[in-house]
Amino acid sequence: MDTESLVEVLEAAGLSPYQADAYVTLLDLGAASATNVADASDVPGPRIYDVLESLEDRGYVETFEQAALQVRAHSPSKVLEDLRGKATRLERAAEEVEKRWDQPELAAGDASIVTRFRTVITRAKSFIAEANHQILLSATVENLERLRPAIEDAADRGVSVRVSVHTDDDRTALDVDRFAECCTEIRHRPLPAPFVALADRRRACFAHPPDSYDRYGVLVNDRTHTYVFYWYFLTCLWEPWEQIHRPDDGYPIEYFDVRHLVRDLREIDWRENPVRLRVEGYHTDTGEACQIEGLVTDIRVPFETEATNGFELSGQVTVDLDIDGEHMSIGGWGAIVEDVEGTRLTVIG
């Protein structure tokens, strides 16, 4: 680094132009008289004594008397401490600028566009860490590994975790057992797909596949927008693909959507085989959380066919319960006309 650049750096570190100039001059001269320092630098003669005194107060130089006032650079430890301390603060400031630019805060009702997948995966980790009920994921095996600690912690809290694993083709071997303990259900899509993470029906992360022409991510903290991502997940990333893991230990059987529950109820002929259902969700009139349990007394669907061709996923689907003689209707995500919006539906017998 040349002298001019060193002076500029010292100025940036907090020295005045005269202080920086005088200090660098002293580093070159060693011990010198005050007048010699003034002559060798751009510091005016009348100012040199004030400048040297201020440097001495900072611990950068020391003065001593001979025939005339002499000055020399002090041990550089104090200078190095100051410079390294400022460097550390500048580095932290740079990291904070990058973080705030890269990971905008999401207030309720917000949506943000980001440019880095790292931001999307980091925000997905935080959404998973804060989830209380349900997580839906579409991810590669590699990204599942990155999220694995957060997923395991969520499963330990009792959060339902369902994952659609996407691979480039159907020849890719999947180690299902590695994720079986922390995932309620796993499906395999043998096609590239976007990264999607949905938490508690309110927060969503989305990113295009790595080889996509569009390379951006979307972060959402809003129930309505998350609902759109949910339907994309349900119809494109979940419903059509093979189920490769789900506990098969009899009851209880857990569902994350009332439509899947109704489809299975029709298959087992619920009228001939009474079904007891536990529902976690929210009262639609007050928004208050609730947990109820009762016998299924009716199911209401907008379709007549028994075929499972995907169309039965749309429209109003309702399950009626008898709870100790009291009737209560259960709907799915976004329920309005039913009594309860069910977020976790568990057949317990």
Automatic annotation (TrEMBL):
As given in the record, the signal peptide range reads none
SUPFAM superfamilies, alphabetically? TrmB C-terminal domain-like, Winged helix' DNA-binding domain
User: CDD domains in the record, alphabetically?
Assistant: PLDc_like_TrmB_middle
Q: Which Pfam families match?
A: Regulator_TrmB, TrmB
Domain (Transcription regulator TrmB N-terminal) spans 10-74
Occurrences of domain Transcription regulator TrmB C-terminal (ranges): 112-347
Give the source's domain of life in one word.
Archaea
The text of the family note is: Belongs to the transcriptional regulator TrmB family.
What's this protein's name?
TrmB family transcriptional regulator
Please tell me the species this chain comes from: Halobellus ruber
